[in-house]
Please model this.
Amino acid sequence: MAILGTFLIDLDRPGLFTAPILFVKSNIHVLFTGLALLYLAQIIYYLSLHPPHKIPGPFLARFSGIWKNVRYFRSTWHNDVLELHEEYGPVVRIAPNEVSFVDAKALGAIYGHGTTAKKVRETFHSSFVLYRQRMLTLRHPQSKWYRTWFIPDMQRSFFASQDVMIHRALRSRVSAAYSMTSILAMEPYIQEVADKTWAKFRGFADSGQAIDFGEWIPYFTFDVVGQLSLGGEIGFVEQEEDVDDIISSIHIGFYMMANMGNVPLQMFWLNNSVTKFLVERFGNAKLNAFQGFLKWLEQRVRDRMKYGLGTRRRDMLQHFIEMKGIQGRPTEVGDAMIEGVNILGAGADTTSIGILAVLGDLILHPEIMPRLQAEVDQAYKDLGHKEKQTEISFKEASALPYLAAVIKESMRLHPSIQYQLPRHPAEGGVVIGPYQIPSSAEVGISPRSMNRCKEIFGPDANEFRPSRWQFSNEKEEEAVKEMSRLLTTFGMGSRVCVGQNLALVEVHKFIAQFIHKFDMKLADPQKLWTTRTQWFSMQYDFNVRLEARQ
Ligand code: HEM
Model:
């Protein structure tokens, strides 16, 4: 007690330690006034001098990031971004230093190939060792929001890499695995998961039990990703549940990462020893599930490295194991793991959102279904699948013009990613509409609002009209090509979605085979689904009853 007493500070007896405290105590009002004045000066600067100050936008957003953060955290950006552009026009200030736009010309200027800010050279060694310092000093076209996706204790993924050179090197070593040739060679794996799904659906149709597509379609896409890149399906379809809470733990992680990207210090608040200890000690199973999954994945990768492919056909995991690691050295377990995690995070929910978007539109527009089913049924007949009892392939399904048009239109109106894709303009800035925006500002589009741009898709851009993607002469074909070029469902430029081939194969196969086999109706005719946007715009509580057709 006596020892403790000597460390207690006696504020009545000024000394080396107590003097500054006494000074603060007696001048606290001066300090607070000073801070308030500084904040006021910053507000005045943002409102009247900061380069984007002339751009319209909500009043709060003109001097505080809170306006956007509240909307991101409450998961309503899918509505907010549309209302925003409806009210303020095509160029809107959504945070003091961030601008959202809907403008065809600016799209190319910001996202097009070769339009990035100064490229910065760095060796892999320096980049990995000095990662933290470099992030603070380098200029990158990708905004700092992307840093939030850096997973502690794991290798860096190309999605989280802001630096142009590192991104290019990391992406190019895996791009062959994502090519259409490679994906089609793995199509039997996708079919295996589809067959299991149809067997389950048939059971539900027979029993009349309602099912939640919001759960079942992710089971399908997560199992496909498992088949291709994790050495085998995880078993969501088979076990009819979110095995070991993997899917929900990914959703919790995404919610936090995407939203903390705009908060000062980003994921530091969660990735520090104190928070980690508290989560491990007191967190529920869902909060800790991802760590368990990583251990499971590490074992799978180690087994594959030790025992090889065996009788399995070549898959993406094999590609990741055989690719070259950093600086040409052999791949380490961590290199293959980060690519698997990348696909699981980026490729499963996104694809299920695409499939759900189409299923939702088929329910909302019942007049579409008979025509679509007639096209697909005819293809099954003409291609001999009916007698052979085989399934339509991606190549065959994607050649059906009406099916392709419906899928493209649904994914236009409900793109999987709906947050802003923030970038820094190139050196010298960029002109968007009447505004000159400096390279220090962040600018970006949300695929949700950009895909409804009337300048590109016409006055009925908000309507679901699949025929906009069909053509009957050269002129119309050119117009469709131009709309396709400016469609941002999969992003654009050097960061365009690397997995779009896989996504398209899954969506086309799933929809064609599903509508050939089943009819569906809403369990509650008044309610389609609930949307929650947290980087991905996900559909929940999509309850339906199935009826077998074939
Ligand atoms: C319908 C399905 C999908 C949609 C709509 C979609 C959409 C997108 C978009 C908009 C981006 C750009 C993000 C940005 O600019 O920051 C992106 C990037 C990415 N996507 Fe997809 N995606 C889908 C499926 C997939 C699949 C199946 C995979 C993996 C197998 C995948 C892996 C990735 C990766 C790794 C990136 C980062 C690319 C980079 O930074 O270079 N995506 N995706």
User: Anything to note?
Assistant: The beta strands are 91-95, 98-101, 211-212, 430-432, 435-437, 442-444, 518-522, 530-534, 536-540, 543-548.
